[in-house]
Design goal:
The chain is mostly helical and 180 residues long. The protein has helices at residues 11-34, 43-71, 81-109, 134-166; strands at residues 116-118, 122-124. Strands 1-2 form a two-stranded antiparallel ribbon. Strand 1 and strand 2 form a beta hairpin. The radius of gyration is 18 Å and the shape is elongated. Bound molecules: protoporphyrin IX containing FE (2 copies). One protoporphyrin IX containing FE is lined by residues 17, 20-21, 24-25, 69, 74-75, 77, 87, 91, 94-95, 98, 153, 156-157, 160-161, 171-172, 174-175. One of its GO terms (molecular function) is heme binding.
Length: 180
């Protein structure tokens, strides 16, 4: 079952969720490590190249994911009313932080008017270059939004484990395999 329904996520949402989770954690670690590299380190250029290429692919994947989210029914949540509202808000905040992190990353990289080469495969053009002190401003936003994203994702993972082991709901199961 590829589509989502009221009872469960389908394969496409599940696949995108776990690919995104891996890529977000990888990009955070890589971004952090990049800052420690010296100019003569070969990774001084390679690191940002991988970071930006994976980041732009994740941006495209996330836009597909949000469209898919609107095109499908959303699985109903379990738990108290408080938990359900909290989970919905939390999920939308995760999407918002994902998009903010990637858009600010795009704005840092394109501030000098050059596009972003994605794995030397295609180039995403620079569209906005006129924000005052764009590179620094976008850099600040990028750091704080990336940090907020991984902290919220950590809390989100803990809640998923709580639903699974404590409440014994099928919350985590339906993000691992479509449920009947
Ligand atoms: C969810 C996805 C992403 C995460 C979690 C992430 C995380 C990070 C982190 C932790 C850093 C190091 C701290 C900093 O200077 O801000 C960083 C730096 C950077 N990121 Fe990302 N990033 C993501 C996506 C992107 C994208 C899509 C681009 C651009 C196409 C990008 C471009 C950059 C650049 C150019 C830097 C270096 C900034 C500097 O030297 O100050 N990032 N990223
Ligand atoms: C960077 C890491 C992660 C991000 C950005 C992320 C993001 C999201 C988002 C946005 C949703 C909402 C899906 C929707 O209804 O549209 C979601 C759902 C879910 N995530 Fe994550 N996630 C991450 C990591 C994890 C991890 C590590 C776990 C498990 C330990 C997990 C378990 C779940 C579960 C079980 C759901 C379904 C919740 C429900 O049924 O409403 N996620 N995730």
């Amino acid at each position: 079952m590829i589509t989502d329904n009221k009872r469960s996520y389908g394969w496409l949402s599940i696949l995108i969720h776990w690919i995104s989770a891996l890529v977000v954690i990888g990009l955070f670690a890589l971004g952090y490590w990049m800052l420690t590299l010296g100019y003569y380190d070969p990774w001084y250029r390679l690191g940002p190249w991988w970071h930006k290429s994976f980041g732009m692919l994740l941006l495209i994947l996330t836009l597909v994911r949000v469209l898919w989210r609107f095109a499908n029914p959303t699985p109903t949540l379990s738990g108290s009313r408080f938990e359900r509202v909290g989970a919905r808000l939390g999920h939308w905040l995760l999407y918002a932080l994902l998009l903010l992190t990637m858009l600010s990353g795009y704005l840092i990289s394109t501030a000098d008017g050059r596009g972003i080469s994605v794995f030397d495969w295609f180039t995403v053009p620079a569209l906005i270059t006129s924000i005052p002190a764009q590179e620094n401003l976008a850099g600040e936003v990028h750091w704080y939004s990336a940090l907020a994203l991984v902290i919220l994702a950590g809390g989100h993972a803990l809640m998923a484990l709580k639903h699974h082991f404590w409440d014994k709901h099928d919350t985590l199961k339906r993000m691992l395999k479509p449920q009947k």
